[in-house]
Amino acid sequence: MAGLVIFVALSVNFAIPRMMPGDPVEQQLAAVSAAGGQTGDMAEAARVMRAQLGLDYPLWYQYIIYLGNAGRFEFGVSIASYPQRVSEIVLAGLPWTIGLLGMATLVSFCCGTLLGAALAWPKAPATLKLLALPVVVLSAVPYFILGIVLMALLGILWPVLPVAGGFPFGLLLNADFATALAIAYHAVLPALSIVQASLGTWAVAMRGMVVSVLGEDYMMLAEAKGLPEWRIFLAYGVRNALLPQLTQLALKLGLMVSGAILVEVIFAYPGLGYRLYVAIAQNDVFVVQGIVLLLSVSIAVAMLVLDLVYPLIDPRVTAHGT
């Protein structure tokens, strides 16, 4: 199934950029000409550039070449940033996206899952129940709206955090503590907006699932055996309600490659989401193909790994689906 999903994703990924309106080569040449960098016969320049990019072949032949190159994760050169290769653009943005969204997703998942389980637990402190309303409200607010609010409050009204970029202007990136601290400092606002918006979603979903397992026989048996409350909560309540959360986490981690696009655009964060946004705006077909394919493969791999891990988390689930 994972192989079939990847093949279908490859085919759709090839077709959609070529269905976008306009000729990407002519658009790029027109932009260069408007900036005063292109003179002469535009039609001839477009013909030469199409030949260099392999866009003058029939679609079926382009598709065969594309499949062969995709097997090597090679997508040629960027039309908008010629002659920079697509692989260089993807690799330049990938660490930023994994660092920001990977950490934000895992933090929000762990905190939101435990918070939601605690909200549903009958013996949880009464003061904890007061968090239910704010959590529900947060789950309904889009992360980019929170990003704008946080930018206005902590970046403009009280300028304590940077509002744009992934690192200070003029900083030479090195593998040292000072560089890591500067990058983490610039990631606080976008990460905080993602965590705050996702926390409520994880908590609300987990609360409903824990409520559904409270009346199960194994829960009553654990209480009758006199097991400690914390063990009943974690080993019997949280563990048995966790599978749907893990499915959603796998999808989130797969989608992580595309980035929280609007958050990265708002904060001008140099991740894959921002680069995908720029590539779509510039009709840069090959960059769009590279990033979207990486997204599709990541989702398929994440779901495959999740299917293999399921039986380890819950022994009732087996590889045969029984």
In words, what does this structure look like?
It contains 15 helices and no strands. The longest helix is centred in the middle third of the chain and has 37 residues, at 177-213. The protein starts with a helix and ends in a 9-residue tail after the last helix. It is globular and about 85 Å long. The chain is mainly α. The protein has a domain at 96-283: Orthogonal Bundle (MetI-like fold), CATH 1.10.3720.10.
Brief synopsis:
With 322 residues, the protein is an all-alpha fold.
Taking the alpha carbons of the first and last residues, their distance comes to 19 Å
The largest β sheet comes out as: none
The assigned CATH architecture of the domain at 96-283 is Orthogonal Bundle
CATH homologous superfamily title of the domain at 96-283: MetI-like
The overall strand count is 0
Number of helices: 15
* Global structural class: mainly alpha
What best-fitting shape do the alpha-carbon axes yield? globular
- Unreliable stretches covering 5 or more consecutive residues: none
Query: What share of residues is helical?
Result: over 70%
User: How do the SSEs run, as a string of H and E?
Assistant: HHHHHHHHHHHHHHH
> Cα-atom Rg, whole angstroms?
24 Å
Percentage beta strand: under 5%
Mean pLDDT: 78
CATH class of the domain at 96-283: Mainly Alpha
**Any idea of the CATH topology of the domain at 96-283?**
MetI-like fold
